[in-house]
From TrEMBL:
Domain Glycosyltransferase 2-like, residue spans: 5-108
Name this protein carries in UniProt: Glycosyltransferase family 2 protein
Domain of life: Bacteria
Lineage start: Bacteria, Bacillati, Actinomycetota, Actinomycetes, Mycobacteriales
């Protein structure tokens, strides 16, 4: 039976938000024959995540004890993944019921496509949603399109947390790396430079806005800048060396 692995890195103090994330995984309307595993990897001292995982039969929890940050924590979950496809769900975000099916249907049709991204609405603290128009045309995305956008705007045209990718491709690129912030941007910069993808016009997930999110941390602006630089450097190195996965 084909399987998709959903990876969530979490601190134990986010148990309440994590439960809502799990409920959004449980609500997925998967294509016939597909199943999902939810890999919860707890960063730091184990707290409440194991109890949340126990409420979902498709969840598998692991805690490593040390504080590795989101990149290292996701990579430990990636090592446990059994699916041909992998999707990152942050502990405070929510998948809409069409999220995984939209990506699965895209990636199952064309083996030359290595990743699929959906649109996101911001979920505000009062429960309202803010929508945003796509920043590039939706549909097939050729290698290099995201890279050109990154060079021009110092960011990617989609939030990396909305991306589903082939597990083998993510592993071939070394996963998320050890960057302190924005590790998913560095990975997606390489993934989208080396392989073709698909950008859906559908809203497939909700990006939760709240005071405790990592982008509100005092060190975010200090650490995010060097990580964006690392993403641009990786992109430049790939183009200079003309590295290809083909």
């Amino acid at each position: 039976m084909p399987l998709i692995s959903v990876i969530t890195a979490v601190h134990g103090d986010r148990a309440a938000l994590l439960r809502a994330a799990g409920e959004s995984v449980a609500a997925q309307q998967l294509p016939s024959g597909w199943s999902v595993e939810w890999l919860i990897q707890e960063d730091g001292v184990p707290a409440g995540a194991a109890a949340v995982a126990a409420a979902f039969p498709f969840a598998r929890h692991s805690a490593h004890g040390d504080v590795l940050g989101p990149g290292g924590t996701r990579n430990l979950a990636l090592a446990r993944a059994g699916g041909d496809l992998v999707h990152v769900l942050d502990s405070d975000d929510l998948l809409l019921p069409n999220a995984l099916a939209s990506a699965i249907e895209t990636l199952a049709i064309d083996s030359e496509i290595h990743w699929a991204a959906g649109q996101a609405d911001d979920l505000m603290p009062d429960g309202t949603r803010l929508s945003f128009p796509p920043e590039i045309p939706t549909g097939p995305v050729a290698p290099g399109v995201f890279g050109d956008f990154l060079i021009a705007h110092d960011r990617l045209p989609v939030h990396p947390a909305g991306v589903t990718a082939r597990t083998a491709t993510v592993r071939a690129l070394g996963g998320w790396g050890a960057y302190p912030r924005g590790e998913d941007t560095v990975l997606l910069a390489a993934l989208s430079e080396l392989t073709a993808g698909q950008l859906s016009p559908e809203v497939t997930w909700l990006y939760r806005r709240h005071d405790a999110q990592i982008t509100h941390a005092r060190d975010w602006s200090v650490l995010a800048g060097p990580t964006r630089l690392a993403a641009r450097q990786r992109l430049a190195a790939l183009r200079e060396l003309r590295i290809s996965l083909g």
